[in-house]
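Researcher: Hi, I'm a grad student and pretty new to this. My advisor asked me to get structures for two proteins we've been looking at. I'm not sure of the right format, so I'll just paste the first sequence and hope you can take it from there.
Model: That works fine. Here's the first sequence with its structure tokens right after it:
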Amino acid sequence: MFRKILLAYDGSEGANRALEVGIGLAEIHGAELWALAVQEKLPRFSGTINEVKEEKQFADEQYGKLLEAAKVKAKEAGGELKTLMRPGHPAQTIVAVAKQGKFDLVLVGHTGLSGVWAAFLGTTAEKVSRHAPCSVLIVR
């Protein structure tokens, strides 16, 4: 039923639960499992171009570590996890990658790292579920 599964991964407790579900679904369906980390907090203003480069490098390292840890968890469970890293707004980027990659299913944790703003603006999971081009599983 599912051939390509996209996991929205931010390292949160909800994302880790979604990773566990994704590993199981990928095994059951013989599907590819991909994890996407969205870099949303890159600097908008800085004093020099070097500061932007330093911030980008730091973000790449941090998100890279998150994705590498997820790959290790998948491997320990007997699965394979492919990874992507993109800058942008989380919900918009997840939806865009799901469309571009022709994914059959998007997995998102019910709670992530969005914090207080989610109460006012809606969660990433809610936004993705409204706009994704495929099925969305919100893992609690």
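Researcher: Oh nice, that was easy. Here's the second one.
Model: And its structure:
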Amino acid sequence: MTAGNQPSGVRLRRCGAAAVLVELDSLTQVAAARAALADLPGVVDLVPAARTVLVSFAPGAGGLKQVRELLGQTDLSQAPVSASRAVVLPSVYDGPDLELVAETAGLSVEDTIVLHSGAEYTVAFCGFSPGFAYLTGLPDALRQPRLDTPRTRVPVGAIGVAGEFTGVYPRSSPGGWRLLGRLADDADPLFDPARTPASLLAPGDRVRFEVR
């Protein structure tokens, strides 16, 4: 991008013949860029992450030029307001780190549950494992570091917090997030390869945790 039309904090990198990696400085810029790029002709896939958006184009679509011109005309300082799906996750707050999170936040266990379940979250991006969604909107008091020693096995459906994110483990795996609870037994699986789409959550979805 030229200096005259390059938004602050934006860098473009070619990824093969038909993809562009957009490097950004914040989750807000990622959300704004993803929304703008979704309408470009020739786009076949968009993959947002914490500070990047990977844009894949049909061969011959002129992706780099299109991305450069569009982002040069786009206000990336605020996330767009757009229609999104609302997803409710029935949840049980009985996690092994619930008391640790409450103590670190200076709250009672009951107030910690109310604070976490009372917030509305947004899927910023997905990664780590199929169906794992990184949710923004975590209240400040619950923004805490990962465990000093990660667990070798976190059970499927575990609800955790780490840094500015909250999320749910879609499958059993190692992990270092502080665990508040788990999805209720009647919750839909976060990832089901027999379902279309296979992932329950997608970037832009609004998510609430419902106490059971």
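Researcher: Is there anything I should tell my advisor about the second?
Model: You could mention this: The helical segments are 27-37, 63-72, 98-105, 109-118.
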